[in-house]
Every structure is written in structure tokens, then in C-alpha cells.
Amino acid sequence: MNDTTDLSATPSNHPDLLRQLGWSDFFASGLAAMDQTEASVARVFSVQRNGFIVTNGHKEWLCSPAGRLLKQRDREYPVTGDWVVVDSTVITSIIPRKSFLSRGEAGTRHSRAGSATREQAIAANLDTVFIVCGLDRDFNIRRLERYLALVYNCGLSPVIVLTKADQHDAPESFQQETETIATGVAIVLTSMQDNRGTSELESYLGAGQTVAMIGSSGAGKSTLANMLYGSEIQATGEISASVGKGRHTTTVRELIRMPQGGLLMDNPGIREIAFHEGGDGVEQTFADIQELAEACRFSDCSHQHEPGCAVLNAVESGDIEQDRFDSYNKMKREMEFLESRRNKSADRVEKERWQDVAKMIKHINKKRK
Ligand SMILES: Nc1nc2c(ncn2[C@@H]2O[C@H](COP(=O)(O)OP(=O)(O)O)[C@@H](O)[C@H]2O)c(=O)[nH]1
Ligand SMILES: [Mg+2]
Ligand SMILES: [Zn+2]
Questions:
Q1: Does 219 sit in the ligand 1 pocket, CB within 6 Å?
Q2: How far is the CA of 224 from the centre of ligand 2 (A)?
Q3: Less Cβ crowding at N or C end of the chain, within 10 Å?
Q4: DSSP of 96-154
């Protein structure tokens, strides 16, 4: 497992070892449809500048992507958590994903109006996402709301982790405040000082489960990884400062095999919370507003000025907080902007899609020969 320099793939993969890495029937059927066998399967544990670190449970090794993958779009490029087919040290294809965390393409705000927005995958095959937030200056209910919408928009299940609970005499008040924007979501208080929250979070890390942590830098993600792991596996705040001074040069492992049996991904690199269109993350995050809207007089009410608007009434009466309503409107506008841009460029997207299909057919025909 530690040998990242061994450049040879293992001849045979034991299905049990793959299952310990999260392999399931879902991926097996995807693989079968690709006409491949489990002997050539590995999971991407880390994306490095010089390639991908993959593992099959026997060992880890460095792979480069096949030229064909390089030419494809972001969505088709391997990311941490992907199951891939490897030929020795080359990743030849990605096995269809069960889920993935994604955001709007980086820099979309500056791209030409009318250009296609693309979804950029950041991490694949996740079961749960821990939204990690420190109970210090990091705590921000509106940001938590945005993270929730991002996670829902990707069809994933969130858990909110409020770290640094030791900083307060009554941290439960933060938990209660968070509950008002996250109905039905587990909200867990943790602290590195007394390890509280460990057993509740462990329940998401059972065999075959993959969890990713997202949140601001300094929120306490790596500290949490260490707490759940039971010893120092990730560099935290103080230590990474010394890494900067050149004391350490170890590569960062993005996916950690946990003693609980599952896998934990530390910080898959979401720096800005940018949405991609097409999901219903905003509706899910604001389920309370969505429900009220059914009582609006007009079925296509925009909740801005219409008479008989149940949402505006609720804002007026204080049932819906003004800040929450503002946050809803802001995210809604972002989604509508993405949607309108997508429609404008639908022709172009359609054209690209057919080019992809043509490429795929060509590839299949080549393989058949
Ligand atoms: N008091 C307190 N400090 C914490 C806790 N968790 C993390 N920290 C501190 O917060 C800083 C950032 O933690 P780190 O895990 O590196 O954050 P990351 O950037 O999200 O990985 C470090 O100085 C940690 O010691 C906690 O539960 N209590
Ligand atoms: Mg960290
Ligand atoms: Zn309305």
C-alpha cells in the first residue's frame, strides 16, 4: 500500500480487496458493460501534477492518463475517488460514476456570454459529504446554506460538522441555529480536545463508504481526519505551516483508508462555491420556501411582488427570516443565469455532444476490429 514507486500493475485483483476500497455491484455492472474484467481495476486515491496515484488494495502506483482521456472534457477526466481501468501504468478509461461532487467550471464568470457552462467534477463516487465549519470566525449560516445547496445539487447527502466546540460554553446554540437552515440534516459538534462527535461521524465511515470533507481552509478538516483515524495521518494547521518552510515534502494523500472500514477524502479542493445548472439543490435547501410557494395565488409566482404571495407573507410575518429569503433569491438568480446561458448555447452543446458520440462510435468500431 505504501509503495508508490512500483510501476507494475498487479496481475490479479481480489474482489474482496476491491470491496474494501468501496467497489460494489454498481461498478461491477458498469465494468461488465465496458467489456473489461476486475483484473484491471483500480481506484484513484490522489491526483498529482505528474499523474494519478491509484490502488487496487494490494499496492499503490503512479499512472498517467491515456491520450484519449487527455482529449476529453473535464467531466470525463479522472478525479479522486474514480474507479478506473488501468493497463499497467496507463489509465485507459473511467468506470461509470455512482455520484460526483462538481461545481460550475472554474472562471465561468469571465467567460463569454452564451458559451457553454460545463460541470467540473471534483471528487467521484461519494456516499456522504461532511460540510465542515469551525465554531470560530468561520461560522457563517449563509455559507453553510450555500454548501448545502452545492451538495444537494450534486444529489449527495450532507452532514454538517461544527468543529472547535471547545471554544464555547454552550456550543449547542450554534447547533440550534444551524438546524433552522438544515431541516433533517445531521449536525454534529466535534472537538479535538475531548473527541466529541467521533462515534456519530464513524457511522458514516463503515465498510465500503466514501466520505468527502469540504469547508474553508482552517475549518479543522485535517484535525477531524486525525481524530477519526485515531492518530496523525494528515498535516494540520501548525504542521502545514512548517511544510511551507520545507521541513516536510510528503505528498498529500487525498483519500484515506479509515480504521472504521470506509474512506475519507480530505478537502477535494472546492475554493469557491460555484453552482452548475440542472440540479435542484436550491429547491432542496429551501424546502420551507418551496412548500409555502404552493399556497401562492399564482402558480408561477416569483415571490417578488405578486398579491397573495404566501412566501412574501411569511417573510413579512417573520416566519421566514429576511436574510434567508435574500440568500434564496441570490442562489435562485445564479441558477437562472446558468440556465439562460445554457439555453443560449444549447445548439453548441448539442453539436459537441454529437461529436462525442461520433468519437465513441469510432472508438468502439476500432476495438471491434
Ligand atoms: N480549539 C480547537 N482548535 C481546533 C480544533 N480543530 C482544529 N483546530 C485548529 O484549527 C486549525 C486548523 O485546523 P486544520 O485541521 O489544519 O484545518 P483544515 O485547513 O480545515 O484542514 C489548527 O490550528 C487546529 O489546531 C478543535 O476542535 N478545537
Ligand atoms: Mg487541511
Ligand atoms: Zn409567491
A1: yes
A2: 9
A3: C
A4: PPS-EEEEEPTTGGGSPTTSPP-EEEEEES-SEEEEEEESSTT--HHHHHHHHHHHHHT
Domains observed in the chain? 1-98 (2.30.30.140), 103-266 (3.40.50.300), 281-348 (1.10.40.50)
Other Cβ atoms closer than 10 A to 83? 27
Answer whether residue 349 shows pLDDT above 80.
no
Q: Whose CA is nearest to atom 1 of ligand 1?
A: 164
How far apart, in whole angstroms, are the C-alpha atoms of residue 68 and residue 213? 31
Alpha carbon distances (Å) from 94 to 84, 202, 345, 349? 4, 29, 27, 22
HSE-CB at 44 with a 13 A cutoff on CA atoms is 31
Specify the pTM.
0.80
DSSP 8-state class, residue 165: G
Distance 236 CA to ligand 1 centre (A): 7
**What is the C-alpha to C-alpha distance for residues 214 and 80, in angstroms, rounded to an integer?**
14
Encode pLDDT of 37-75 as tens digits. 888 999 999 988 888 999 999 889 999 988 877 665 544
Q: Ligand 1 centroid vs 192 CA: distance in angstroms?
A: 8
Distance, CA of 242 to CA of 233 (rounded, Å): 16
233 lines ligand 1 (CB under 6 A): no
Task: Output the residue whose Cα is nearest ligand 1's atom 9.
Answer: 220
How far apart are the CA of 65 and the centre of ligand 2, in A?
27
Helix ranges, the chain (H): 15-20, 25-33, 67-70, 141-153, 172-179, 198-202, 221-229, 237-244, 281-285, 287-293, 310-317, 322-344, 346-368
Q: How confident is the model at residue 352 (pLDDT cuts 50, 70, 90)?
A: low
Alpha carbon nearest to ligand 1 atom 26, residue: 164
pLDDT tens-digit series, residues 158-191: 999 999 999 999 999 999 999 999 989 999 999 9
Query: Rounded to whole angstroms, what are the CA distances from 256 to 56, 264, 265, 272, 340?
Result: 14, 5, 6, 24, 40
- Number of the ligand closest to the Cα of 219: 1
User: Could you tell me if the CB of 195 is within 6 A of ligand 1?
Assistant: no
For the chain, first and last CA: distance in Å? 38
Which atom of ligand 1 is nearest to 192's Cα? 27
